Hints:
The complex is a heterodimer. Chain A is an alpha/beta fold. Helices cover 29% and strands 32% of the residues of chain A. Chain A has six helices and 15 strands. The longest helix of chain A is centred in the first third of the chain and has 17 residues. Chain B folds into two domains: 171 residues, HUPs (Rossmann fold, 3-Layer(aba) Sandwich), CATH 3.40.50.620; 120 residues, 3-Layer(aba) Sandwich (Rossmann fold). Chain B is built from eight helices and 16 strands. In chain B, α3 packs across α4 and α5 runs parallel beside α8. The chains are: A alpha/beta, B alpha/beta. The interface between A and B is large, with 86 and 97 residues.
Amino acid sequence: MNILVxxxxxxxxxxxIGVADDGKKINPQGVKFIxxxxxxxxxxxxxxxxxxxxxxxxxxxxxxxxxKEVLQRALAMGSDAAVLxxxxxxxxxxxxxxxxxxYAKELSPDIIIFGKQxxxxxxxxxxxxVAQLLELPNVSIVSTLTIDGTTVTAECDIxxxxxxxxxxxxxIVSAQKGLNDPRYPKLPDIMKxxxxxxxxxxxxxxxxxxxxxxxxxxxxxxxxxxYSDSDADIAELVRLxxxxxxxx
Amino acid sequence: MLVFLETGVNGLKRSSYEAITAARxxxxxxxxxxxxxxxxxxxxxxxxxxxLESCINVIGSGVTEYANGVWALxxxxxxKQCGAQTVLFSANAHGKDLAPRVAVLLxxxxxxxxxxxxGTPDNIEAVRPIFGGRVLQKVRSTTPVTVVTVRPNVFxxxxxxxxxxxxxxxxxxSDSAQVRSAVVKETIxxxxxxxxxxxxxxxxxxxxxxxxxxxxxxxxxxRVLGGAVGASRAVVDAGWRPHSEQVGQTGKTVSPTMYxxxxxxxxxxxxxxxxxxxxxxxxxxxxxAPIFKMADYGIVGDVxxxxxxxxxxxATITHKN
Lengths: 248, 321
């Protein structure tokens, strides 16, 4: 089975984020970057499919040379090959999707696995766009995945429940937390991964279809009316929720 | 404007009415048209109250089983048919699944999970939370057609005064031989449980509850409030609660009218999932817990003392028990 996994580098969830002087992007200074948490499930699923069905795992990322960190992590976990699609301008989802689709056309994978979203721009857009560009079926937010021959059965999360979905290979899936238990790479593998080759290629020549007008920090001001646990204060809270906030 | 609508138990889903309300905000005098699969005349009529003027009803074979590939193609064809400059979805599971495909089919810029919309159908500016709500991005498309998804529970569904009966037209599903879809074979519903992402009120518990059986306190408060039960990552990872209840970075993003955090310290990852709630209430025994900075109302105290009192106090107003 020819498996393609897509992963990305994102700011750490707890990093304090500021806006750059141009007001259109974040200021990366002092921000720690990590492998997108959902992509760990994608890489692990790729490796498990390879262990079950044979074949090879290629991990691809679209980003700057800093994103090689993601590829080295994937290689340390057991990915066979790694590809960096150089995108110096942090393009929009459509350019990222087109770049991956163009590469996938050359590789012809049986399955392409994504994390369900990247936690930086939270767009949920790239897997579906790649699916449409390649005219492949895709399943989003997958929490269980079984492949039998060319038949793919998956469970995916929806509001208030799950859907049991089927399609056939080749296909695209995006991984939800709980799909598997990602392995921790061992130290020797981490060291070896640093010297493994990373193939580089250029980003797609298609144009972005969206543009950022501005980025601002949200106004997180709240009422901050904090009370003690006395009976009188609890009664006062109930009154305020009813009469002031009017939520009950 | 074309709005993707989903059928619900009574009429359409609330998220569809919200999407109509959001569309009307930027319609600028343009018609608001819907596209829906397998709707009854009553369901389409119900949407009229929210200002839907016409509706394309997809009927015939293939309309009962959700299949993202052919459904996206059908929606894109409907958008072309009515000359829509903007196609709008709720950013729920199916909306988020369909919108990227429809955007590619219409060569449209995609604006995702928007919490504010401004402008006119040919020039929409949207605001969306990114980096887990730590930054707001104002974004617009650079293409003639724009596809937008709006975060559930943010645009409150509003009925209009001069409601009319939406004009219905019928089409069948677009040629499916060309498209390979993933097809839904079965839908498993969490019986009797309100989902956190759809609830008006969410009561969440964290590690401060100390043991899974103490979630009874959370369930009791949720019941008198008519809300859903949520959970922090810590208690989901510990196996106390199912992942479907998890609020936060690796769980669900919610924007309820009221969010009650009980025994949750308020890690950044949790705040990412609930910071757009309208009113936030916190109960925690640590007065320095970060959740209080995010709270409109808070009680510094032990959840085991406070929650039963709060529950009975609220029950006297809501008359639920």
